[in-house]
Design brief:
Layout (H helix, E strand, L loop, with lengths): L1 E4 L4 E7 L23 E8 L8 H17 L10 H9 L2 E8 L1 H8 L4 E4 L4 E4 L3 E2 L5 H4 L23 E5 L7 H18 L2 H9 L4 E5 L2 H8 L5 E4 L10 E6 L5
Parallel strand pairs: 1-10, 3-4, 8-9
Antiparallel strand pairs: 1-2, 2-4, 2-10, 3-6, 3-7, 5-6, 8-11, 10-11
């Protein structure tokens, strides 16, 4: 599976690989090309308080988890209240936009319908898809810039069993906001690539996952492995067609 997305600390994605789930837009025959469909975006807001920002890896993993929390929520499928918007979003380019909030901004954003994912110290709220030019006022005024985050120490290499692994391309430099959108795409591709039994097991476990940057010497092999990959549309930060992420299913021991 290969996915492509566009970004302004966001991302637009086209995907290829494997067996897609029946709710994947790459599985369905589209009535019109994706670029001609109404365009929606999935908004994500990361909480970055001035004196207590989250670590980079924690924010990345929490953003990826937020995406699958939205996809798996009963409101996003069938006759759910968000289902029509989720379908419209998936029928166009799969766009995600990451913005930041603190203090009163975060409190106001948290009052809008959505889901807040929490990590070790990170909080990311994901909202139902919105039209490209139809953002709620509380979200449209939030900043895209200023999402650069750091890790105080190198993330552990051993991530343990039952975790999905989302690998970042070591050859690309992206802002943390851009990376959050990219790993969100990776988590989405994994969700589409799973059958119902695999989805239920991952969901029941709380969507355990880890985000890591692969060693430079392994990237070419990993990108050619046939695993779900994210290929960026190149609207911001990276060249069109760049493979930003490779995602792998949870390893069961």
């Amino acid at each position: 599976m290969n996915s492509t997305d566009s970004t302004d600390s966001s991302s637009s994605t086209d995907s290829t690989h494997g067996t897609h789930g029946t709710d994947s837009p790459f599985h369905r025959a589209a009535a019109a090309p994706r670029d001609e469909a109404p365009q929606f975006v999935l908004p994500l807001v990361v909480r970055i308080e001035r004196n207590a920002p989250p670590s980079r890896t924690d924010a990345l993993e929490t953003a990826a988890r937020a995406v699958v929390l939205m996809l798996s929520d009963e409101r996003s499928s069938g006759d759910g209240e968000w289902a029509a918007r989720v379908r419209d979003w998936q029928d166009g380019r799969i766009r995600k936009v990451v913005r930041r909030a603190r203090g009163a901004e975060w409190r106001k954003a948290s009052e809008l319908p959505g889901i807040t994912a929490t990590g070790g110290g990170a909080e990311v709220r994901v909202f139902p898809p919105v039209p490209l030019d139809g953002w709620p006022r509380e979200l449209s005024k939030l900043q895209v810039s200023g999402t650069e985050l750091d890790d105080a120490e190198q993330p552990a290499g051993d991530v343990g069993p039952d975790r999905a692994l989302i690998w970042l391309n070591p050859e690309l430099h992206m802002s943390t906001g851009k990376e959050m959108a990219q790993v969100g795409h990776g988590a989405q591709l994994l969700w589409w690539d799973m059958d119902e039994t695999e989805r239920a097991a991952w969901r029941d476990a709380g969507f355990p996952l880890a985000v890591r940057t692969v060693a430079p010497g392994r990237w070419a092999e990993l990108a050619a492995s046939g695993l779900p990959t994210v290929r960026d549309a190149g609207f911001t930060e990276v060249a069109p067609g760049s493979v930003t992420v490779v995602a792998d299913h949870p390893v069961r021991y």
